[in-house]
Amino acid sequence: MSRAPVGLGAGTYVAFLLAVLGAIAWATGTAALLPSLGPSAYVLAAIDDRPRRVVVGQFVGALAAFLAVLAFAGTATPLLDAAAGSTAGLRRIAAALVATVVATVGMTATDSLHPPAYATVLIVSLGIADDALDVVAFGVGVLVLVATHGAVDRLGPWRPPYSL
Q1: What digits encode the pLDDT tens for the residues 120-160?
Q2: Neighbours of 3 (CB within 10 A)
Q3: pTM
């Protein structure tokens, strides 16, 4: 079966997937749409439309980062708000490094390596979206992304994955 090349079709498809998440984030004021879901949407559209890696990889990354924050950063100021050279910033960086190792081990063990999940690790561990509600809302966003992809795959009008 010949597939359409990446371009307008993939771009509009990724934009549609993100629009669904954006509407949820806008309506609820939650972290249902975080930057790492853009690359996940692109992976579904153009590289590997198997949603299992997206779901498991993103969940492993978010959970590893959330637990690392609890263990190392606690209520430390987010890195971007911390003073240069501060203990809070150092604790956030330690959480990010530990979360990166734990996420890699977890994704490898579950055969769910999903590179965009490393952005999730940093988003959560560095304090951009790190409370429990943020992580839950993000998890819902991942599930909605994959469910929307599945519905589009069955009903159209797009036919992912687009070839590179």
Answers
A1: 999 999 999 999 999 999 999 999 999 999 999 888 888 77
A2: 13
A3: 0.90
Structure tokens belonging to residue 1: 């079966």
Positive or negative: CA dihedral 46, 51, 55, 61: negative
> Both tokens of residue 59?
């969940």
54 to each of 16, 37, 42, 47, 86, how far by Cα in Å? 17, 9, 11, 12, 35
What does each C-alpha distance from 76 to 3, 54, 63, 108, 160 come to in angstroms?
Answer: 48, 29, 18, 29, 42
pLDDT of residue 104: 98
